[in-house]
Amino acid sequence: MQVLSARPPWRDTFISLRVRNYRRFAAGNLLANTAVWMQRIAMDWLVLQLSGSVAAVGITVFMQFTPMLVFGLYGGVIADRYLKQRLLIVTQSCAAGLAALLAVLTLTGTTQVWHVYVISFALGLVTVVDNPARQVFVNELVGPHYLRNAISLNSSIFQLGGLIGPAVGGILITAVGGGWSFAINSVACLVVVAALCSLRRSELHASPAAPRAKGQLVEGMRYVRGKPVIFWTVVMVAIIAVFAFNMPVFLAAFANNVFDIGAQGYGLFNALVAAGALVGALASTRRTSIRLSMVVGTAAALGIVQALAGFAPTEFTFGALLVGIGLANLLFVTAANSLVQMSSNVQIRGRVISLYILVLLGGQAIGGPLMGWVVETVGPHVAMMISGLVPAAAAVVIALLIARSASLRLKFSLRGRRPSVAIVNRAGKAGARL
Q1: What secondary structure does DSSP assign to 93-136, as a single string?
Q2: In the prediction, which pLDDT does 421 show?
Q3: How many CB atoms lie within 10 A of CB 129?
Q4: pTM of the full structure
Q5: SS3 of 345, please?
Q6: What residue stretches are annotated with the Major facilitator superfamily (MFS) profile domain (predicted)?
């Protein structure tokens, strides 16, 4: 795994944008991510208006992520076998058509809850192929030298869209209704298709295609199980995804039932999370290394901040903690994503990434209705506290298991001017930096 020995100069914070192909891809992604966030806000609020149930919002999340839970590993096999550029052109064209259909249903006033469920499921099927292909395609755009910077920059683009999209989406819902958010997203997907078609193939760092063979799914799973750095990262992602990555459910409940601030407030809450996440994504470009300890530590921090947000006494305090949640969220996601990609062989990376995405999105498919039920059973405050405490406790347990397997322990020293804490093995020597 490539590791930087010193922080890069500030002028190199966005160094991957110097690559023409990636620059075009990133520009299309920025527009598309902004529109996708607008669509997500509009879909969640539309379901809440049609059904009057927070649990129904959780079911929408479930329908969108269930295909990844069921077929996710096959998406990785497809990404390893075929040209990523062509796959992304097909998936983005399908996403444009589904968004256009939802726009027509909404603008004509004929939308029903089951329509949203079906379209969410279809979008989930598109995601099964789109996500692993997109993740691996970044490596083909920039090459291994700029990969980590491009991963962090992708997260920044995603969160910048998340900062702008919810705010604009909330305004559109209030002013003209959510149907126009779906129409805008359809157009944005077509812009991404145009950007993909304009890339110079001669400048791509093409990955070797995996040949057709039996047992490729099992091979990918064995590869993950045999590499502790990837395995424990995937386990931590799964736990976080089920309990902590269901913010639409929590934010809809707090906006509608706790603070009574409507669609604009819901959009503002999402924008605050995205603002913190944008700061986290930019900070992640300054990292000199990525280690397993960083993944576990940021997961614990995310859990603690999210638990505190459950009992925020005012809207201002809640909003400030949402910024902290977004910051910890992105530091965790970029660390986990980078560690998994840069620790895996390029020929099997699609299958490894598909397993990573499976637990990330599949966990949300399970967690959406689960946490929606918890919200309606014990209330938003207690539910959000649970969503933070469980991942924090899991991070502590995983850290202890890793330390035990590597025969590591903490060593405290009060000598000198400053107390020190170090990780050492049982013999007292410095331990491996996990």
Answers
A1: HHHHHHHHHHHHHHHTT---HHHHHHHHHHHHHHHHHHHHHHHH
A2: 43
A3: 25
A4: 0.66
A5: coil
A6: 1-406
